[in-house]
Amino acid sequence: AAAPLRQLPPRRARAAAMSSPQLLAALDLMRRMPPARMEKSLEELVDLCPSLTDDLLNTVDQPLQLAKDAQGHAYLLCDYNRDGDSYRSPWTNAYDPPLDD
Hints:
Elements: H1 10-18, H2 21-32, H3 38-48, H4 53-59, E1 65-68, E2 74-77, E3 82-83, E4 86-88, E5 95-96
Antiparallel strand pairs: 1-2, 3-4, 4-5
């Protein structure tokens, strides 16, 4: 009987993924991009290598983005107030763009 496959602990799995030549090349390319184009460069690299999307988005630091709600209050666009492609304003509790129910 074949031995059962052993699942790697998260740290080892991440180390194995980080040693991927394609990911290392993508990270090297991102280091050479101008900081002013970081968001656009990352978007284009993800379009070029969709299989690296999760690793790149978890590894490459991106600048914070601000938005304003309908009342003019500024808030951060981040994962904590995101639902799909919409972001919730903590001031009005409204999503922009509005969610489809």
